[in-house]
Design brief:
Layout: H1 3-16, E1 23-28, E2 32-34, E3 41-42, E4 44-45, E5 48-56, E6 59-67, E7 73-80, E8 83-88, E9 91-94, E10 97-98, E11 103-104, E12 108-113, E13 116-121, E14 126-133, E15 136-144, H2 165-172, E16 181-182, H3 193-198
Antiparallel strand pairs: 1-2, 1-15, 2-3, 4-16, 5-6, 6-7, 7-8, 8-9, 9-10, 11-12, 12-13, 13-14, 14-15
């Protein structure tokens, strides 16, 4: 194959925006958190945590999660540009009002995405996708569609930067009197981190 047509195809694809990088942070009902840098760790706690928090082009984003005793996420709060969206008990609430899907708002769109539900921001290069099951949410991931030149905090860390897991946990917890952070239960798990990345 002549390299010039191939280069033209890549240049056209880049110009049309079809090729771009996504940075993904995932968390699962087991308590596993896979931050932007890809090295998974385990958090066994019913405390609320900041999953990710950042400001981009003067738009604030804050995603917090809370697990139940069974490990499933029982409450997720997504705040983008001061608009609060809460995922709880299988419902989606925007500014304290239950909404049906698809839901379109000036700043965000919430819609079914196969078996999942997705919130896509129109202000930030960000989407949050989750899977509801009886009792909570068993999978949630945050995708950032470009590298952000900003300070990110939370369990997801900052993409491209490796962080100390204990430091991420201690700096991300939103303490309450009634919550506990427990030591992880070590057990043989047949699912490898590579399988988690493929999901």
């Amino acid at each position: 194959m002549n390299p010039q047509p191939w280069m033209l195809l890549v240049c056209c694809s880049l110009a049309s925006g079809t090729i771009f990088l996504k940075y993904t942070c995932r968390t699962f009902g087991s308590g596993v958190v896979q931050p932007f840098n890809g090295s998974a760790f385990y958090v066994h706690s019913n405390c609320p945590f900041v999953l990710t928090r950042f400001t981009h082009n003067r738009v604030e984003c804050d995603v917090t999660v809370r697990r139940g005793d069974n490990g499933l996420l029982v409450r997720v709060e997504i705040i983008i540009n001061k608009v609060r969206t809460v995922l709880q008990n299988g419902s989606v609430l925007v500014e304290k009002k239950s909404v049906s899907l698809p839901y379109d708002h000036t700043y965000q769109h919430i819609f079914q995405f196969g078996l999942y539900t997705r919130l896509k921001s129109s202000l930030l290069p960000l989407s949050v996708t989750w899977h509801d099951v009886p009792g909570g949410i068993d999978a949630l991931w945050v995708e950032v569609e470009q590298e952000l030149d900003t300070d990110m905090t939370g369990l997801c860390g900052k993409h491209g930067v490796s962080g100390d897991k204990q430091q991420l946990i201690s700096e991300s917890v939103l303490s309450e009197d009634t919550c506990q952070i427990r030591d992880p239960v070590f057990a043989v798990n047949p699912v490898s981190c590579n399988e988690l990345k493929a999901q």
